[in-house]
């Protein structure tokens, strides 16, 4: 019996990880992270709960990667800490993984294996065959998984529009060939199911970029995702044509371009590259800077350029900043703030709202239908999306002629079973999101987040009172301290009055009352809450520190 | 000399307030608020700094309102607390202001005056004439301001596409007539300058809404902004045509529809309205619910429906939820979370990404050019936008033939002066943003926000040590308390180890050392910071409480 179980990626864009099992053998497609949502205060990254895999121990045979984006490879270091499972991927994907494992101090023992598009990969009863797919990172693949009950095709993250480089195009022929063999199930990328029509081609984006870079009277500064090697190659080619030098700015760009150059995926004409320290040695209109920070990340080189605090690059009138990436939901205000700052400095900014300088890496609706038609599966399983994406993709499949009963809506933890008699879904296994904050993996949960939210809203007030253990007399305090509550000038005033509120309680609670200290504590908390509500309508967290000495 | 000074609205969408002065007389167009940005933790609303107006005292003669959106009227209660200036507006706008002042306990003394589109309004040397504009709230106006040095036209928030109700269309004839008289300057709405073409008409939106509501097999639940009376009337008309009852759900919808009904701006056929408590008394396909919460506000009735915690309405398969409003940047994740929840319940959701069930109230580029052509001003001043919007609008004006030297880029606080010889910009007056948190107006500034951010990131650790004043011996502690730092299970562990770190310091600092307590405090803070960084890579706020008794 074949089992397909997503551990993540079917309730979110992120956390992509799907377990494939037959008999005793299991492997996973991808092991991705997610960036925290707004309410996850202080959280660095989010991981899928991988306990299901850990419990399989030696029966868990491999992780097979489709491509090198964080939502597909970001959880690998956390998995490898606990089990040294082999990782399979294309050269560029493994290049990024290698870098990641090096930073985590896990590279020495890691078992990384390069996959080839011309060879089958055997994992126990499975035989995997990989197909090139065009995506916003180079070296992406989809795959056909031959199993004893039939062949399953996974689209990977794909689009069908033309890449700037023909060898990067989706291998339509191979998908069609598999379609002709009879396919049990297709798992397909749902990200852009809300978008009608087709993605524009990378070539069209290149043409727009060329026009903008060519006519920039000053520096052209292009911000994009570091792994978008095709776009970087296009910009290098444009720079060469228009006699501009190229500067790679920032650590992640340096890392990814180095990996791509080592693999010959990125080719730089001799002498075109320049160090950022030399930027003022050539005329402004002979420079292209390639950098990251296009999501408005506040510590990025781009954000520091925008606010004038970048020591290497001071932007000025004539410079053109090109944000060649999507405005990811949640980042829009950070991005537009950077745009406004650049305008303020007299620089010009080109961004997706006003020009086609970006294209998504994920297929639009027409391409999604084409994938279904090429693969022509018996069963269809939409993956890689939030609930609404999967549901829209399921509807699209129905419109495209797949019988409703053969469309399976997956869920994180839902076990989809195939055997000779058909398909069944059963058993939600335990899944979830594991929050990483600093070195803590999983210790920050809803109670800590709730406390952080309360602290963030109105700050904190600490009340210290020291009693004489024998007499019950107050020997110190009430002393009040606050953070994030009110401004210094007002603070003295409000905290002094709050002190009077507490003194009244201390007077009223007789020294011989049983449990006196805890009575005072309870009354004080409630009185302070009321007092702050009445005077300033805020609800700081009140921490009473009642000490007997 | 005529002076035009924006106090807000030229560096943000929000805080719209522009002071117009001649000689001793000043008045303001609008007095709006802004909703807090993500980093303004715990802040309720943001106001423009109105000190410039307060200082004018009796010379400040009026606030004239263009329409009733919060970014144009929201600061009025805060202004009226300090000075009882007369407020002028159209009937619906004043209806909303009246409600607002009532809630603030300021209505009794307020001086509210209804303006008419057929009469001039005199304010000292100024003569104001109002023109109907079509916007996403009823009863919006633009205005012509006759001054001793020429006539200034303010567009208000406008679009030129057709309303569903002809009497709500922008009064193009009157704008053209003024254009023919010779206009000194045009101030025009820049919000949608990034959008090509024209807004679609309210009628087109109505047709789409009708199709969706008519074919919903269950309840149709439409979420929109409460003040969008035209859209509400359209939905009522659709409900009547398709034999559905109408339920107004939520306080703000009840308020705005009541104001509109009192003014006869909203007409309900007899018997069409139903109370929400009766919702289960009629078949699902005979109900339309009109509600708010379309921005994903977590406490809204809609959000509670989505999570199944709304006591009045349980959505179920067959119900169609229609989000008839824009995804405002910053709210996207909250909105999509609600959408996913509804899908999870089997309900269907229609939203702007997948259907034209919403249109902006602000003109697109072609309409913006038409406004310039109609009014044909000598000077052009783009308003109502962030920096990038104003700069794009200035460029559009240049393309439309207005000489570059006659295009003035305004700024919050920049005084634009007109006299017989021309225009000058000088003197930035002091402006800024005033943050409102609870009853505190202006006391939360960057230092409090910084503290809240630190608290939100990694929580807080309070360390209490009580020393004997004479001997220096520790009589209590070190006692450690934390909030929002680590999960309970881990907490004991980490805080116990941290206690040992402090005990070591206490041992090392000799009892006779001068300033012993403050030395301990300093060493302890630094040691704890290092310890937490090393063990868990977090930086909680450490509050030492060192007491001598």
Automatic annotation (TrEMBL), chains A, B:
GO terms for cellular component: cytoplasm. Substrate binds at residues 226-228, 358-362. Its cofactor is Ca(2+); Zn(2+). SUPFAM superfamilies: Metallo-hydrolase/oxidoreductase. Binds 1 Ca(2+) cation per subunit. Seen in 1 crystal structure, it is not clear if it is physiologically important. Binds 2 Zn(2+) ions per subunit. It is not clear if Zn(2+) or Mg(2+) is physiologically important. It is found in: Cytoplasm. Its EC number is 3.1.-.-. Residues 14-209 form the Metallo-beta-lactamase domain. One of its GO terms (molecular function) is RNA binding. Signal peptide: none annotated. The active site is at residues 189, 362. It comes from the Bacteria. It is an enzyme of class 3 (hydrolase). GO terms for biological process: rRNA processing. Keywords: Calcium, Cytoplasm, Endonuclease, Exonuclease, Hydrolase, Metal-binding, Nuclease, RNA-binding, rRNA processing, Zinc. Zn(2+) binds at residues 67, 69, 71-72, 135, 157, 384. Ca(2+) binds at residues 42, 44, 437. InterPro entries: Metallo-B-lactamas (IPR001279), RibonucZ/Hydroxyglut_hydro (IPR036866), RMMBL (IPR011108), RNase_J (IPR004613), RNase_J_2 (IPR042173), RNase_J_b_CASP (IPR055132), RNase_J_bac (IPR030854), RNase_J_C (IPR041636). An RNase that has 5'-3' exonuclease and possibly endonuclease activity. Involved in maturation of rRNA and in some organisms also mRNA maturation and/or decay. Homodimer, may be a subunit of the RNA degradosome. Belongs to the metallo-beta-lactamase superfamily. RNA-metabolizing metallo-beta-lactamase-like family. Bacterial RNase J subfamily. This is Ribonuclease J. It comes from Desulfosudis oleivorans (strain DSM 6200 / JCM 39069 / Hxd3) (Desulfococcus oleovorans). The lineage of its organism: Bacteria, Pseudomonadati, Thermodesulfobacteriota, Desulfobacteria, Desulfobacterales.
């Amino acid at each position: 019996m074949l089992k397909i179980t997503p551990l993540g990626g079917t309730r979110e864009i992120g956390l992509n990880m799907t377990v494939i099992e037959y008999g005793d053998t299991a492997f996973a497609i991808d092991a991705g992270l997610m960036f925290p949502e707004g309410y996850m205060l202080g959280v660095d990254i989010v991981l899928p709960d991988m306990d299901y895999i850990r419990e399989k121990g030696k029966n868990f045979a491999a992780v097979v990667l489709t491509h090198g984006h964080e939502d597909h490879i970001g959880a690998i270091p956390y998995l490898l800490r606990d089990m040294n499972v082999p990782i399979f991927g294309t050269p560029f994907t493994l290049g990024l993984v290698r870098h990641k494992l090096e930073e985590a101090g896990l590279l020495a023992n890691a078992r990384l294996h390069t996959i080839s598009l011309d060879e089958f990969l055997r994992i126990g009863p499975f035989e995997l065959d990989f197909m090139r797919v065009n995506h916003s990172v180079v070296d992406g693949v989809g795959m056909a998984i031959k199993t004893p009950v039939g062949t399953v095709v996974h689209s990977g993250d794909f689009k069908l529009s033309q890449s700037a480089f023909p060898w990067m195009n989706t291998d339509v022929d191979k998908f069609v060939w598999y379609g002709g063999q009879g396919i049990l199930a297709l798992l397909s990328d749902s990200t852009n199911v809300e978008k009608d029509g087709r993605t524009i081609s990378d070539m069209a984006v290149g043409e727009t970029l060329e026009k903008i870079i060519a006519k920039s009277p000053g520096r052209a500064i292009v911000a994009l995702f570091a792994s978008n090697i095709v776009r970087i190659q296009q910009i290098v080619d444009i720079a060469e044509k228009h006699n501009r030098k190229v500067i790679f700015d920032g650590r992640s760009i340096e890392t990814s371009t180095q990996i791509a150059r080592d693999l010959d995926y990125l080719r730089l004409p001799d002498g075109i590259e320049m160090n950022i320290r030399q930027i003022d040695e050539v005329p402004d209109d002979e420079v292209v800077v390639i950098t990251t920070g296009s999501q408005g990340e506040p510590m990025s080189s781009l954000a520091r350029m925008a606010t004038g605090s970048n020591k290497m690059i001071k932007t000025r009138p004539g410079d053109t900043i090109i944000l060649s990436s999507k405005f990811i939901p949640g980042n829009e205000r950070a991005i537009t703030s950077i745009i406004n700052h650049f305008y303020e400095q007299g620089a010009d900014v080109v961004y997706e709202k006003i020009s086609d300088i970006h294209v998504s890496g994920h297929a639009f609706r027409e391409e999604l239908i084409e994938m279904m038609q090429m693969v022509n599966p018996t069963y269809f399983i939409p993956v890689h999306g939030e609930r609404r994406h999967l549901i829209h993709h399921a509807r699209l499949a129905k419109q495209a002629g797949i019988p409703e009963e053969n469309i399976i809506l997956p869920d994180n933890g839902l076990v989809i079973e195939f055997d000779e008699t058909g398909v069944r879904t059963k058993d939600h296994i335990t899944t979830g999101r594991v929050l990483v904050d600093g070195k803590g993996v999983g210790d920050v949960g809803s109670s800590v987040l709730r406390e952080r939210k309360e602290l963030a809203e109105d700050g904190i007030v600490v009340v210290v009172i020291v009693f004489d253990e024998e007499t019950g007399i107050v020997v110190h305090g009430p002393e009040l301290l606050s953070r994030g509550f009110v401004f210094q000038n007002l603070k003295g005033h409000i905290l002094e009055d709050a002190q009077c509120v507490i003194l009244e309680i201390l007077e009223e609670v007789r020294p011989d009352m049983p449990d006196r200290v805890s009575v005072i504590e309870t009354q004080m908390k409630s009185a302070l809450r009321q007092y702050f509500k009445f005077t300033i309508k805020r609800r700081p967290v009140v921490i009473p520190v009642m000490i007997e000495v």
